[in-house]
Amino acid sequence: MSQQAYVRLFLQPVVDECEVMALALYRITRDGLVLAAAAGDEAGSAPASLPLGGCPAGTAARKGERRRVHEVEASDATLPDAASELIEPVIFDGLPVGALVAASGVPHGVDDWTAQLVALAASRLAPVLAWPDPAAALAAAEVVDGLSARFEGRFDWTGVYARTGADDLQLVAFVGEPTVHVRIPVSTGLCGAAVRENAVQNVADVRADPRYLACSLRTRSELVVPIRDAAGNAVAELDIDSDRAGTFPAEAVAVVEAAAIALAPHF
């Protein structure tokens, strides 16, 4: 099930937009790179595991360095029959957590457009791979993807943050532009207020609210809905930004609250 979710949410959309024979996602473990999922016509040829040293993909992932080769030697190719290849590290909060490998069967097949799409996928995958519970992270990714699609044009950034202790929130999954706020102190911003007060924060104009933690200059309104455990404590939250003021009427809030209830068992 997790492989299917990775493919549907992150990998297949990239493959559908570019000319690659395979796009493979690897997770960094103590034993090396372990294949999490792969998409494309040659997905089945992706190695199940790779060492962190001694091969280009492992070295690039470990160092957190992008590697694009327009004419890759067969001995250096991650996938058999690859003529060109891109290795995009997946980095969360400065630390490598995985890698995406895009392979093409023709020289120079991994073009700039493909590289851009792969980089965006890597940014979305970073918090998902970094969260210690893969099932919870994928559930969060499913929910934010669904909300973003349902409210397309209104929800410009949708994410899930979860508490990692008494004082911090960590980004688990998101849809939208990458954010620098992958960790947020509970004492800070509307996200912090939502878990401190265990209450919905619905701000029609963030420019008028001094608690707003600036992420995008375009953001005008923000909605933060707590995700509560069985005891009613706020253990996570859904955070949504909109580029329009007053985006979150009661019916939209109700939909997000229902999503928060559905996610609660995972946190």
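The above is record 1. Record 2 follows with the same two-line structure.
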Amino acid sequence: MTMTMTMTMTTEGASAPSAAVSDRPRRSRPRTARLAIAAAAVVLAAGDLAFKVVAEQELTGGRSIHLGLLDLRLGYNSGAAFSVGSGLPSWVVIAVTGIITAGVAVFAWRAAADASRPMLAGLSAVLAGAVGNLVDRAGDGVVTDYLHTGWWPTFNLADVFITLGAVTVAIAVLRHEPARDSEA
């Protein structure tokens, strides 16, 4: 809501300021939210891609680093989540994941105007993970994985972003927290 000041005459003849609401729509909230989603997604995806580069440099030749519950072990996935579609040509997997990533981006763009902060954070994380894996896959048709538990398929930071982001979005939807406008 944009506020403008006008002068109103009082019964004594003196001028006093009063607030009037402008007819112009307020666009800063959706723009700021969309910028926040995009910026967070870029930073998180860049972090994911950087970790993948380090994993490919440091975990070659079957080298594994044991960290307790989690090991760092290099692996590659030609399919989507849980290797679904691993037998398909890489261009098909790239096209499908590209369409899904575009859909997530469009949804995030449209939802940003009225989304709560948890929803914005969740959408940013899901988008970052999708972009990180898509960019990684675009180079050679596979996604670089490096987080290994022994009881779960090997995964990467982008997968963590997607999972935690989806859980955050689900919780935000269940709690139905509308955006809070600080000027309302």
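The chain has one domain: 28-175.
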